[in-house]
Amino acid sequence: MSIYVGNVPFTAEKEDIQELFAYYGAVARVSLxxxxxxxxxxxxxxxxxxxxxxxxxxxxxxxxxxxxxxxxRVRKAEPRGGGASDRxxxxxxxxxxxxxRTSDDPGNGSQS
Length: 112
Prior knowledge:
The chain has a domain at 3-76: RRM (RNA recognition motif) domain (Alpha-Beta Plaits, 2-Layer Sandwich). Helix content is 18%, strand content 26%. It is built from 2 helices and 8 strands; from the N terminus they run βαββαβββββ. The strands form 3 sheets. It has a 4-stranded antiparallel sheet with strand order 2-3-1-6, with helices on one face. A two-stranded antiparallel sheet has the order 4-5. Strands 7-8 form a two-stranded antiparallel ribbon. Strand 7 (92-94) and strand 8 form a beta hairpin. The longest helix has 11 residues, at 52-62. The termini are far apart.
């Protein structure tokens, strides 16, 4: 299980987040994603802890706590892709039947 930490201050470093969560147990990994275009922090992080019980304690205790001047949001991270496959991709539009059509397909419903 991974922990999602939202509303992370942009001044926070991986070491700051590790120190915060280390109070609850051993931290296996901290990820602080950067924006691809600007290289700046995106305002959220992921934390993996060694023990699942420690993870749950951290989630319960740190939810909506003010840390470094911001109220952080802490919850279990959703699996990557969390429903994105249900959304149309660029150039596709959903139809009433749930099929996907590309921009190249006129999709007027008439058959030749």
